[in-house]
Amino acid sequence: MSGFILHPRLEVDTAFVADWALCRLLAMKDARYPWLVLVPRRSGAVEIFDLDEAGRAVLVEETARASRGLKALSGASKMNVGALGNLVPQLHIHVVARNPGDAAWPGPVWGQGRAQPYADDALAAWTARLREDL
Amino acid sequence: MSGFILHPRLEVDTAFVADWALCRLLAMKDARYPWLVLVPRRSGAVEIFDLDEAGRAVLVEETARASRGLKALSGASKMNVGALGNLVPQLHIHVVARNPGDAAWPGPVWGQGRAQPYADDALAAWTARLREDL
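Output (structure tokens, whole complex):
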């Protein structure tokens, strides 16, 4: 895992939550949705199949952990999980809590409208809560 | 896996390719993008974490297999993988081959424009090719 550097766009758009066994867990700075991003700390990984089988098994477990935890924490009705990377090639998995009537429902959140920033205090409280509960 | 019934919306929107160990592999009837859908044959599964750990390990392997194979087959520059389910709750994983300049680039494909049907012959040829190559 040496040489891992978070993509500058993710560095700007997210806040650090925790380093799990494989992934760096990040919170998207967008208060419209409870929104996590998992980034495997494997330099050069772009697609899920760039990880080896053992890495993929951890990836899906960490994705399930984030998704189950965020659903419980947020009370959301549906989780959206996506690995797109059309703009940021570094492999990263979005885990987004969705509800009927949210800003993009029933469409996907990506590329829809503008991020709504958290107040600094609210962001710190949110990442602390994620660190504790997930 | 008894009692598995494909959601009627997926039944209409996709064509059968193959049954893998866990998932039914389907081809989306939309010629704008090389587009697969994997549906775990587990009745009642909605979220990835509704599968058990063994099921999730197979799910990520079948997702990687579909994604690697479709990228090679299509020559696409990026694969998009997503489990959304805002409209169709039955757990299903989209695997979509993307290229700069395609109909939705760089945004996500979901909810964008209208599906472009394949001619019947072309759809049969496409699913046969998928069956052989993936």
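The beta strands of chain A are 14-19, 23-28, 35-40, 78-83, 93-98.
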